[in-house]
């Protein structure tokens, strides 16, 4: 059994998961194609974070939602630790993030992921996201895949 909960951006387990994600991505992409969000660079009002924990309360994965001034929001930092993959935790994270977006009346969700992360792309497609052009603040990057979804 897994549970998902919202946490503060400074949560120590979240920091640990994000560090693990950074290490994973640094092996896949050069620095200029690594679009990692530094949580300390955004206000608490701009960011909402979630963690999935296993039955022993160990952190299994995370995700975040960054709100933009235009009313859209961006999915950031979705990560599942390798030993927990294949258990539909990514869908739980995306669903929780979409719920937060709906609460805040954000109707457009966007994200950037990398071409070497095919399981992530598959996850987002299953969740209804479609490939789109680069959006602000990004520029087109041959190593990036940009996706979007309009919420009802």
Automatic annotation (TrEMBL):
- Which residues, by range, are in coiled-coil regions? none
Tell me which residues make up the N-acetyltransferase domain: 2-152
Which InterPro entries did the record assign?
Answer: Acyl_CoA_acyltransferase, Bact_Acetyltransf, GNAT_dom
Q: Determine if Transferase is one of this entry's keywords.
A: yes
> What PROSITE patterns does the database record attribute to this sequence?
GNAT
Which keywords belong to this entry?
Acyltransferase, Transferase
The superkingdom listed in its UniProt entry is Bacteria
Q: Read off the lineage from the record.
A: Bacteria, Pseudomonadati, Pseudomonadota, Gammaproteobacteria, Enterobacterales
Query: CDD domains from the entry?
Result: NAT_SF (cd04301)
Recorded hits in Gene3D superfamilies, A to Z, give: 3.40.630.30
KW Plastid (keyword) present? no
Q: State the name under which the record lists this protein.
A: GNAT family N-acetyltransferase
């Amino acid at each position: 059994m897994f549970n998902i909960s919202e946490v503060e951006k400074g949560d120590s387990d979240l920091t640990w998961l994000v560090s693990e994600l950074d290490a994973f991505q640094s092996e896949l992409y050069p620095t200029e194609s690594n679009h990692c969000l530094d949580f300390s660079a955004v206000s608490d009002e701009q960011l909402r974070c979630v963690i999935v924990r296993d039955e022993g309360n160990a952190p299994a994965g995370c995700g975040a939602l960054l709100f933009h001034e235009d009313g859209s929001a961006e999915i950031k930092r979705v990560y599942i630790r390798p030993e927990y993959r294949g258990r539909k935790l990514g869908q739980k994270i995306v669903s929780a993030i979409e719920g937060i977006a709906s609460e805040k009346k954000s109707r457009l969700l966007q994200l950037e992921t990398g071409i070497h992360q095919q399981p992530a792309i598959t996850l987002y497609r299953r969740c209804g996201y479609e490939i789109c052009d680069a959006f602000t603040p990004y520029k087109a990057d041959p190593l990036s895949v940009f996706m979007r979804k309009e919420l009802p």
